[in-house]
Amino acid sequence: MEDGAVRHIKIHDIEAIRCITFLVRDRDWGTLTPLISNEVMIQSEANLRLSYDAEFTTSDARLKVHISLETTEHKFTVTAQGHSEGRFETSRAGFTVLHPITDLAGRPVSVAHSDGTVEHGCFPDEIAPWQPFQDITALTHTVGLAKVACTFQGDTFEMEDQRQWGDASFKTYNRPLAMPWPYIIEDGARIDQSVTLTWEADTTKPATPSAALPETAMPPSTFPELALVITPDDALRLSNRPDDIGPVNPQRLLCQFDATLGNTEAQFEAFCTAQDVCSGQLFDLEMVCKFDGAPATELEALALQMKRSGFDPASILICPAVDRQSTPPGSKWPDCPPLEEIHRAAAHAFPDTYRGGGMVSFFPELNRKRPPVEMLNFVSHGLCPIVHAADDLSVMGTLEAIPHITRSARAIIGDLDYHIGPSTIAMRHNPYGNRTLPNPNQQRVAMANDDPRHKAKFGAAYTMGLAAALAPANVSIWTPAALYGPRGIVSERKAWPIVEVLRSLALMARQPVKSSQIGRGLAQLQVADTEFLANLTCEQQGDLGPFEWRVKLP
């Protein structure tokens, strides 16, 4: 149990539930941290009872909830009873249940609905862009040799495939996303919910996945080139301090261009000044366009400005500005020209440029709005491990979902070149709210724009784990950090641990991946004859201390 969340519920040593927690989100989908009090535990040989009070606070109101948990030999129940003091604004308030992806992806599940019907289906194998199941009152499936039923009461529950955000879980949650949010829990309104697990022996042979991986081996993979993100202001700073990239020496710099900010010609000129002094790096352009009129008009004007500035990018990723924000299920898609029209205009405006599409945000947005791959040279999306949770265990746990993301992306883009955009622990842009969350106290905060672990050994170990998770996917370019700022590599005091890791990984670019594995708290990677090993835990593992890593050179 951690901060009120019950984690890793196992039946006969096999994980059945990753987590059960009563979760409250603010209007920007930030997770509110409860004040927990009055904890009580009563334990005997036959059962266990736990209870506590959780108080969630916004600027105008409080939500007070009493949580109780009881276990017996074949039953596990968590209940929540609470009320609002004041008009409490939230995007979600209720139980969230996380189901582990190992041994469940592609496996059968029975789903009971509120009208009494039962749907027989499967947990998704490839990542589902929309909710695989809605109006859920119970889920029944096998865990090892046990048949497990998970029953929900007190609200309308549905499931989303959290793998697309990087979480290693399927999530069942209350209040359908198609309903308006944020919403108000009125003063005095009551909450009464429960989640119950029951299980019994199931000695039948476990079913095989409905959509098994192809038996043929994946083509050989090479390790990607490494890029660092820069903004126009960063580019001007870099032009005066070109040695700032020396400690990592990346192959590329990813230039963040945003037409909605205006001053577009000055943005191109800033990137040109950096390009003039950094002859050893290729410059890629991430171009966010307004597209509030004809795409051809905007793109031709930008192409002319770029030519006049002298900036010459090696590639251009084009993304509509409205697609930086997620369009949840049930929401109206924002006005935007068709992607085919946009990329047809881009081909005319930038005829000799290596062009890409996809998202400057994350895989869910790509999965829900898929680009016309036949018109592109590459497809890109970013990653972020603190969309839903920011504790150490959850962040490292997202590495388990990376192969699911890359496999699902490959199902969309085929053999097209695959780029992984900005993929830092902290979030540079929030597709699910109006802002990233400030973190002045340097805590573990979901959707924060700054995370203290980036600058610590944890950040270095996470980055090596990410490299190991991505290595088999034959990614062409990855962007694991920025140059400056809270997600960067430049420190005025001392070099952060991530710098040494990135320098070592940058040397592996374009070399063959021999092996890659994440398991038992370790990340292992061999590229050519160089071996990498990282401890992804806070415990000593062999000769590696918490979050330590090493490189074994040939």
In brief:
The chain is of the alpha+beta class. It contains nine helices and 29 strands. The strands form five sheets. It has a nine-stranded antiparallel sheet, with no helix packed on it. Strands 18-19-20-21-22-23-24-25 form an eight-stranded parallel beta barrel, surrounded by four helices. A six-stranded antiparallel sheet has the order 1-2-8-15-14-11, with no helix packed on it.
Q: Give the structural class.
A: alpha+beta
Total beta strands: 29
> Strand arrangement, largest sheet?
3-4-5-6-17-13-12-9-10
* Unreliable sequence segments: 206-218
Shape designation: globular
Helical content band: 10-25%
Mean pLDDT: 93
Number of helices: 9
The major pleated sheet works out as: 9 strands, antiparallel
Radius of gyration of CA atoms, rounded to a whole number: 24 Å
- How many angstroms does the end-to-end distance come to? 44 Å
Give the DSSP E fraction (strand runs of 2 or more residues): 35-45%
Can you offer a commentary on this structure?
By secondary structure, the protein is an alpha+beta fold. Helices cover 18% and strands 36% of the residues. The chain has helices spanning 232-240, 264-277, 295-309, 339-349, 363-368, 392-397, 402-413, 457-470, 497-506; strands spanning 6-11, 14-25, 35-43, 48-57, 62-72, 75-85, 88-90, 92-100, 108-112, 118-122, 133-136, 138-143, 146-153, 157-161, 169-174, 183-185, 190-201, 225-230, 252-258, 282-289, 315-320, 354-362, 378-382, 417-422, 477-482, 513-519, 522-527, 530-535, 549-552. A hairpin with a 4-residue loop joins strand 4 and strand 5. Helix 2 (264-277) packs across helix 3 and helix 8 packs parallel to helix 9 (497-506). The relative contact order is 0.10.
